[in-house]
Write a structure and sequence with these properties.
four-stranded parallel sheet, Rossmann fold, single chain, 300 residues, alpha/beta, 14% strand, elongated, 42% helix
Amino acid sequence: MIRKTSFACIIISLFLILLFPTCHSPKTNQQQEVFFTWEDSYHRPIELKEAPQRIVSISPAITEVMFLVGAQDKLVGISDFCKYPPETEKITKVGGMHNINFEVLLSLHPDVVLIGSMISQQDVDAIEKMGIPVVCIVEESSLEGMSEMMEVIGRITQCEEKGNAEAAQWREKIAERKAHAPAPGNRKCVYYVVGFGDGGDFTAPKNTHIQEIIELAGARNAGDSLTGWNISREYLFKVDPDIILVRREDSAAFVSRHPYTQLNAVKAGRVYGIESGWIDVVSLRNMNAVDYIAEICGNR
C-alpha cells in the first residue's frame, strides 16, 4: 500500500512539473520578446523587441537628453544640428533635418532612430523601409514637456531611474522659478529679436516656448498679443520694451542700425546678447536663458 501511494505521488509530481511550465511559458516568453511599447508623438504604436544598443538621434533636444541620462555611449549617429554638449563633435553626423544622408545612416546599423517634429513623413517612411524602427519624440512647445522626453528616453536607453530623477528635478526647477516670479503688474517687458532689418522684424508671439522662457524668468513677453512671428515697427515702438534680447552674434549690428537706435532700451544700453542655443529651440539649456533673463530683470 505504501509503495502504491509513493508511486502515485511521483506520477502527480511529474504531472505538475510538466503542467506549470506549460501554463506559464507563453507569458514569460512574451515579456522577454517585448522590451518597450509606447504610442509615440505621431500617435503610432511603437514596439521594440530588444533594448537598443545603437541609436541615431536626429534631434538636438533628444541628443542633449541622452547625455543627461547617461546614455551617450549608445549614440552612433546624430544630426548636423546636434552641437551640444561639445562631445557631440566626435559622433558621426547623418545630415540635417531635411536632408538626411540615408547611406551614412544605414552604414551605422542603428537599432532605432529617434526623431523630433522636424522630420518629414517621407523621411520616416524611407528609414522604416530600410528595416530600422523610428520613434518620434516631439520637442514639446513647452518647457514642462521636456520632463516627459526625459522619462521616455530613460526607458528606451535602460536609464529609467536616471531619466525619472532628472524629470522630477526639471519639474522642481520650473515650480521654483514660478514661485519666485513677481506679480504680473510688476514685470518688465522683454523683446526678443528673432529677426530684424530689411527683411522685416520678427519676435516670439504668444503660446511659444520663448514666451514661456520669458515669463518663467519673471518678465513679460513684448509679443504676447501677437499670433504670428512678424511684428510691425509701429507695434515695436508702441510697446517700447524695457529690455531687448538679441542673439549674441547680432547684437552689435542691431544696436547700431536705424531706427532701432531710437528705442529707449537701445539708448539706455539695455540690449543684451544671448546664446541662441539657449532660447531658439526647446532644450535643456532653456533654463540657462530663464536664469539669465531673470538676472537682467533683477528677479534673482
